[in-house]
Amino acid sequence: MEIEENTNAIFNSNEFGIRTAIDLLAIILLVGLIYYPKHRNKDFVFTFVLFNVINFMICFLLGSAKIKMGFAFGLFAIFSIIKYRTIVVSIKDMGYFFVCVALGMLNSLANSNENFTLIIICNAVILTMTFLLDRLDFINNENVKEIIYDNVQLIKPNQREELIADLKERTGLEIHKVEIVSINYLKDTVLLKAFYYSKESQSSLPTISDND
Fold it and tell me: Both 128 and 148 in a single domain?
């Protein structure tokens, strides 16, 4: 009995070491080689690595065979309701956060049967898909920007091309569509929505104000 317990302890130690190595390698590749070189956000590097490692440890130490599935979904549900309220978090950053949490669960709870090849393949697929999707340069985002515009003479329907050309000159943005939100005849200004394409999604940009 004692020999069997020692064997199980050695096996658990070996399994823990292998799973830890796989998870650390995966998170280093994800954050260090895929995320940071493009986004350059040191704060999120800290968050992604810490959440991944803590999630991995919790899942491995507490996820027994009988509660693996329910435990994993329950823990993921807890993490899924976490919201950052101090800053605006982009959809892409939340996607990276999801991948970090998922990698921790995958590497700690996936059934290996003493063969970690499938786990390694799953990690490779996730990392490859993340890299490719984050660098789809042929897909543009349509962004919208509200602009207070001071040349009301150009808001007429028959002068829409001149209006767009003037906005392009002033903003430097490749604007392709304009919508009129409201007109202020007292100040001779108009509030516009300008639509333009860019490689990155942009939530806000400096607006053009009138002379007041």
Answer: no
